Amino acid sequence: MKTARVHSIAVAFALAFSFVLSTLLAPSAAVAKPGFDAASFKKPSKSELKKTLSPLQYEVTQEEGTEAPFKNVHLHNKEAGIYVDVVSGEPLFSSLEKFDSGTGWPSFWRPLEKENVVEKIDVTLGASRTEVRSRYGDSHLGHVFDDGPKPTGLRYCINSASLRFVPVASLKAEGYGQYVSLFEKKTDVAPALKEAKALFSGGCFWSVESAFDGAPGVMTAISGFTGGKKPNPTYEEVSTGRTGHYEAVEVTYDPRKTSYEKLLDLYWRNINPTDSGGQFFDRGQEYQPVVWYGSETEKKQAEASKASLAASGRFRKPIVVDMRPAGAFYPAEKVHQDYARTNSGAYKSYREGSGRDAYFKSVWGTGAAKH
After folding, report:
1. Domain 196-367 classified CATH 3.40.50.150?
2. 157 counts as catalytic
């Protein structure tokens, strides 16, 4: 009996020791890592961040830099998961709300955690924009615009360098397990914008249309009239200067292949932005240069582009192109559409006589527009 009792005690001790030992030696992966804890997070010092972040990540997040478009790590990422602040780890955006805006940077139509995305007014480019920063890491993320898809109509344009991607398969292990369920059910994802419009006046619409026709990402360029009150005016009526209309070109483009900013750059290269009385030998109100913006975002982009042009030092005179809200656009008669191609002889004579190309070459050199 004594021997059996001693044996039982030994077995019990061994089992207890085995349980304690297995608990102590259990793999750390069994315990979820804290993905982000606002209560305990303390932003590292600048010297520490310079050691842990890449030069580009530091420049973007700590010095409000902007990475190059179309050449960044998360732009074309199609994998399911979430995007967190590269500094703090706080959750910011999800792949479920990511879309291709055609701007060259990752775009989202809403944040994953709205309270983690803080908005601030940014006037660094001479025009007011809305900057977005992370709440706890205070990292510069990018900007938000009001030209996004439904249901929000917003476009959060974010630098890849500000983000770290956590795929669905790693969410639990990295402490973001609360988001796994988002990817286990269908979610309405906003489709990528396939078509957008821009409206420009720059003198004779034959030349403006020719400038945009065939440009990368441009689907159509239509000559017409805008700015006046008379509906469906004729070319002869507008030419009198009494309708209030301007000759204009409506550009339909694919935002996945080009951007409004690129169209603005092309526009500047095909007009004289210092001439408010018309363009070249076409004089009068109907030939004055105007950028017709369709949204507050376009207005801000156009103003920023104009300010950048003025600061370039290319022009001795001030930039006088107006920015006005777009209204109704009326296509011109068929004879005026695609005029540079269908009436190439007459157009060539007109263009040479107008002095456009000589002016463009004097301003832009080898980068001058070619037609």
Report:
1. no
2. yes
